[in-house]
Amino acid sequence: MLIGYLRNCPGHEGPAAQRRALAEAGCEQIVEEWPGVEQCDEQPALHDLLARLQAGDVVVVPRLDSLGRSLPKVVQHVQSLTEAGIGLRSLAEAFDAPPRSQPAEPIAVVGQHNSQKAGSRRPGAGGRPPRLSPAQQLDVVAKVLSGRHTAAAMAKHYLVSPATISRLLAARLADAAAPAPGGPAGKDAVASDRIVGVLPPSALDERLAIVGTSGSGKTYAAKGLIERVMATGGRVCVVDPLGVWWGLARGVDSAAPPFPVAVFGGAHADVPLDPGMGAALGRLVGAQPMACVVDVSDFGSAAARRAFMTAFTGALYQANTGPLHLVLDEADLWAPQRTQPDGLELLGRIEEIVRRGRVRGFVPWLITQRPAVLHKDVLSQAGILVSMKLTSSQDRAAVGRWIEGQADRTEGRRILGALPQLRRGEGWVWAPGEGVLARVAFPRILTLDSSQTPRQEARRGAPGLFAPVDAPALGRALAGLAAEGSEEPSHR
Ligand SMILES: Nc1ncnc2c1ncn2[C@@H]1O[C@H](COP(=O)(O)OP(=O)(O)O)[C@@H](O)[C@H]1O
Ligand SMILES: [Mg+2]
Asked: Does residue 133 or residue 341 have the better pLDDT?
């Protein structure tokens, strides 16, 4: 069914003309928004309409900005429609996204459309390269996409044409919406310029949680965001219990590493670690201007990792002064909702860093595949939530509790329902403080994808034959390892 939607706002054609155009386009029903002068942002009629539409319906609007006053609003509504399998047609721009099109497509088109529209207003402006520095570009994208400034105001501020601003926004939105390409990242990509569409730079200094099932792309998404932090000179420490972060210190395809990152511990260590070094490393990381990965994946037992982390976080909390992004991958290992007696001290330290660490410069980012298992007092502190694919109802309920504490419940219900369908590398980014709520496909990272590499390395041994079995040698090796194990302290 074709349903028309019009918004009677200043700057739009009169309602009678809009109604006529929609009827001529074949709309069987027309829904009208009549906001007061002060309430141009509120769209109760559209919300009612969205709630009763069914997959296969097509919404027709006189122009794309009938859907909302700001670009993020328009993008958000386009996303809601396409996700629900509803088509969208806009008469002024000859925009036509049939029902059940890929969510990414219409968003890219909205971006393109905006740049064309601005270009046609200023004919001479089309095609010229942007005359904004990367830092200015980030500033523009952040301010416009967060809804704090209009594109026109930013054009005036930086003395560039509105077309330049629109082109920039279009490129960012297309980048955010496009599925990650299969090939390697472009060699000339500038890290500080690879904004994940919607999340402004200021948001990167917020406490952030990334949740999603195993393999949904959490670590990958976090790496992309951390690359942005490093690109602007931020200090970073990633605690990695799975041995998947060392690639941050490598370039792709044997290219030079884009960022200097020290790797402590694990199979690719610059500096090996043993479980007794927690306090020393905490003091070192707290005092150094550097980016590092602390890989505790080969410490043998969960108890040994917890003991290390207790000493490490305690010393780091004391020693740290400047801003430090502390990324805790698989954070539920350190701050579980149900804590073992030997984990209570560690839980206390993590809570301290997350709740009160701001004054000491800590920007904690927590990553977990089980938000329901992460301690709720820790999760609730996150100001920004990135949710990748999430299927279990308990985990979605945990996200729901975060939403109740931080964000809009109506939107929340809609998003919770959509979480199981997300594809790998896709997530909802919700930053209530920044006015950001968007579905994003996280772009390629600039560093080596080391969550994937072990599998590739294993395959390189093909055609699949190991050395012939030497039973006596294996027996000796096993006896040697057993003897070593008996010397280990009891907590390992
Ligand atoms: N946005 C993405 N673009 C391209 N590949 C991705 C993306 N997200 C995840 N992947 C691939 O999937 C693998 C697993 O993702 P990862 O982030 O490690 O999952 P997890 O959610 O378990 O942390 C990555 O190593 C990478 O190869
Ligand atoms: Mg991971």
From this structure: 341
